[in-house]
């Protein structure tokens, strides 16, 4: 599992527990973790696209 996936799970769990217990701080932390996971996931996608592009360029020049 990727780091963004783990972060997403952690955030969803915190948000759900915060809602269930009425702990607004934990709920907010969960939402922040979810937002962070989305940013991390976007970064991972950019890295993957860049690697694919590099590989394509290598194949063209070989």
Outline the fold blueprint:
Blueprint: H1 3-21, H2 24-61
Helix pairs in contact: 1-2
In words, what does this structure look like?
With 62 residues, this protein is mostly helical. It has two helices and no strands. The radius of gyration is 17 Å and the shape is rod-shaped. The chain starts with a helix and ends with a helix. The model has no long low-confidence stretch (mean pLDDT 92).
Protein traits:
about 60 residues, mainly alpha, rod-shaped
State mean pLDDT (0 to 100 scale): 92
N-to-C CA distance? 34 Å
Class from secondary-structure proportions = mainly alpha
**Secondary-structure element series:** HH
Portion in beta strands: under 5%
Outline, from the CA principal axes? rod-shaped
Largest sheet: none
Q: How many strands?
A: 0
User: How much helix, percentage-wise, in residues?
Assistant: over 70%
Number of helices: 2
Low-confidence segments, given as residue ranges, are: none
Provide the gyration radius in Å: 17 Å
Report a brief summary of the structure:
The protein is mainly α. 92% of the residues lie in helices and 0% in strands.
């Amino acid at each position: 599992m990727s780091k963004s996936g783990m972060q997403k799970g952690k955030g969803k769990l915190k948000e759900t527990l915060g809602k269930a217990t009425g702990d607004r701080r934990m709920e907010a932390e969960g939402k922040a973790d979810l937002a962070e996971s989305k940013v991390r996931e976007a970064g991972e996608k950019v890295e993957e696209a860049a690697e694919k592009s590099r590989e394509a360029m290598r194949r063209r020049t070989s």
